[in-house]
Structures are given as C-alpha cells and as structure tokens.
Design a protein that fits this description.
Strand order of the largest sheet: 6-7-8-3-9-10
Helix content: 10-25%
Radius of gyration: 25 Å
Bound molecules: adenosine-5'-triphosphate
Order of helices and strands: EEEHEEEHHHEHEHEEHHEEEEEEEEEE
Distance between the termini: 33 Å
Number of helices: 8
Length: about 350
C-alpha cells in the first residue's frame, strides 16, 4: 500500500488552476521528488499533502486512510521549509523541542529526543548553542531535526537546500539521502533543480502546468523521456526533425533529418505516418572522432564552437543535412584535437528517442 496517495487533485486559486488532476502514489520509505519549473504547482501539491492547502477536488490518503479533511496536526507528516523558520532568540535545543513542549511531552523525554535527533543530523551536543551562531548548513540541519523530533511517518521538504551555496548544497544532498535511507522515513522533496532530483531520488514526478508529465526512476527519466518537455527539462538534448513511416507495432520506420531512414523501437506507441514527432539524442550519448566509426550512424561534421568544462569538452558542430547546431560532449577530446575543425559524430540507434511533439 502507498504511504501517500494523491487522487485526481485539482487546486484552483481564483482563476489560476495550480493543480490540474494530479494522481500519484509514494511508497513507504521512498525518497520521492516533485520536480518542475517555477509555478508548475509542486509547492501547492506538497501543501495539499501536508494539509496546509485544501484541494478544490480530489483526495489525499495516508496509508490508505482518507486524510483530505484532516487538519495538518492530525496528519503524521512534518514539513521543512527553505526559509527554515527557526526562532533566533532560542537555543538549538529549544527550537527543536518547542513543538514537543506544546504537546506536553514530559521534559525528560524531550531532552532525550532532542539529543537523539541532533545525533541523527550530525550535531551532537549542540543543544545550548544560539541559532544565530549557526552556519547556513547547520541551521538547515536544525530545521530538519525539529521536523524529525516529532517522529513523523512522512517528511515533506520544500526546497530545503535552496538557500545554501553550491558546495554545501552538494554535501547536504548526500547527507540527506544517507539520513533518509538510515531512518527509513518517507521523504517527499520539492525542487526545481533537476540535477538535485536525479542524483538523490528513488523516483521523480516531473511537473509542468499543474500536471505530472512523467513519474519514473531517474535513469528512466533520462533514458526514456515520455515527451518533449521531460526530454528537454532533464539534462541536455538535441532535437532532430523527424517523420514516422510504417510501423509493425514494436518497431517503427522513421526518417530523421540529415540521418536517413531507420527502424527504431516504438516504446511510446507513436502513430505511423506522422510529422508531429521529433527525435531526441543526448550530447553525451554521441561520439566525436577524427576518423569514421562503425556506429549505427556516423556523420561528417565541422566544429564551429567548443567550450571546455573541465571534466569534459562540449563541441557545437554543424553536420551535413541538419539545419541546426548539434551539441556533443566528450571526455576524450579537447578543442585542440581536430585539424581544420573537421570531425565525425556518431550515434547508436538505441540512444535516439522518438517523441510526440505534443
Ligand atoms: P515555485 O518553484 O516558483 O515556488 P511551484 O511549482 O512551487 O513554483 P506553486 O507555488 O505551487 O508553484 O504555484 C502554482 C501556481 O499557483 C502559480 O501560478 C502560483 O502563482 C499560483 N498560486 C500558488 N499559491 C497561490 C495563492 N495562495 N494564491 C493565488 N495563486 C497562488
């Protein structure tokens, strides 16, 4: 049974439809992400799950129980916000224990539980420190500890790392994932950062315009995007004009600009004889070389720009028959490698995704 289930959630704010029929299930113990650009509805969905927002229609279930009408404090969920919302005049321990005091939990138990969660977030012995003496990363951990001390079944995190600088953010991503796996609580994590979602999650719901575009494990999102939006949003890609021809069900013949006609797997059941399609190929799934390769497709090309990125070089190339610049990434060649900017670019048929335009 799903730890959390959202069933056909619609949420209107006046004229604005923030959620347009969202259904999903989150498994117990999962590190689940809601990912999407600004205004796609991810925070609204999280707030509906938390009970901070009432859906206009649809239902929310926790462990099979309909909680749609239950107030926040009666749901076994705790929330962590980007702003942390800590009390600056209180100590770390007081901030964490405050909610328990309000619930009249005995003092000795509060001391024990605060100690335990401070150990979980790797801040043992910090009880008596002032909040204003804590760094950004430490404040984020205190906010996490304050949510965990309530022993929720579900932790809802709204861009919790958004205020941290890149290096600290990378560290905290790893730390949060380890913590989540150790304590086994279900996490629902909102972010607009696709790299964060891809690197941390068990599964991701990619949202756009109040709808879920795809719900998959991160490698699936990357390798088998279901539509143009997901293909473009997750990582980088090249889109090539295409047209489908005949199909035998599993495979379909596709004519791709500059490449020719090929039989490729029709994972998405795309219609035959359609020009409402496009092919997508990732820069890193292609190879750039000085000599012709024996890959499925190998094109003569000319480099028009390069950018050196440290761990790889990105090449912007013109290939015969393709009317836009193709991006290819390589860890093996740099911009000095090619004479007169002449090169070959190669791809495998299995790395080409066929997608509907709409
Ligand atoms: P961001 O990353 O920018 O926070 P988001 O994906 O979390 O974006 P939401 O905050 O869920 O998006 O907002 C979805 C839509 O609903 C937006 O168009 C937003 O303007 C609108 N919206 C959200 N909350 C309210 C509100 N309280 N009143 C009116 N409109 C709202």
């Amino acid at each position: 049974m799903d730890a959390i289930r959202a069933d056909s959630i619609v949420k209107d704010f006046g004229e604005v439809r923030a959620l347009n029929g969202v259904s999903l299930g989150v498994e117990a113990g999962e590190l689940f992400f809601l990912l999407g650009g600004s205004g796609c509805g991810k925070t609204t969905l999280l707030r509906c799950i938390a009970g901070l927002e009432e859906p206009s229609s649809g239902q929310i279930f926790f462990d099979g129980e309909n909680v749609t009408a239950l107030p926040t404090h009666k749901r076994e969920a705790a929330m962590v916000f980007q702003s942390y919302a800590l009390w600056p005049h209180m100590t770390v321990g007081q901030n964490i224990g405050f909610g328990l005091e309000e619930r009249k939990v005995p003092k000795s138990e509060i001391v024990e539980r605060v100690k335990e969660v401070l150990e979980m977030v790797r801040m043992p012995g910090f009880e008596d420190r002032g909040i204003d003496q804590m760094s950004g990363g430490q404040q984020q951990r205190v906010a996490l500890a304050r949510a965990l001390v309530r022993q929720p079944k579900v932790l809802l995190l709204d861009e919790p790392l958004g205020a941290l600088d890149k290096k600290l953010r990378d560290e905290m991503q790893l730390e949060l994932r380890t913590l989540q796996k150790n304590i086994g609580i279900t996490f629902v994590f909102v972010t607009h950062d696709q790299q964060e979602a891809i690197s941390m999650s068990d599964r991701v719901a990619v949202m756009n315009d109040g709808k879920i575009q795809q719900l998959s494990a991160p490698n699936e999102l990357y390798k088998n995007p279901k539509n143009i939006f997901v293909s473009d949003f997750i990582g980088e890609t090249n889109f090539l004009k295409a047209e489908t021809k005949s199909s035998d069900g599993e495979f379909i013949n596709v004519s791709i600009e500059g490449l020719g006609e090929f039989k490729i797997k029709n994972n998405l059941n795309i219609a035959a004889n359609s020009s409402d399609v496009v092919c997508s190929v990732r820069p890193e799934s292609m190879m750039i070389s000085k000599v012709k390769s024996d890959w499925d497709i190998c094109l003569d090309a000319k480099i028009c720009q390069t950018s050196y990125l440290g761990e790889m070089t990105r090449f912007y190339v013109e290939a015969k028959g393709i009317d836009k610049i193709i991006t290819v990434s390589s860890q093996h060649f740099d911009n000095q490698s090619f004479e007169n900017n002449e090169c070959f670019i190669s791809m495998s048929l299995e790395d080409i995704s066929l997608l509907n335009k709409k």
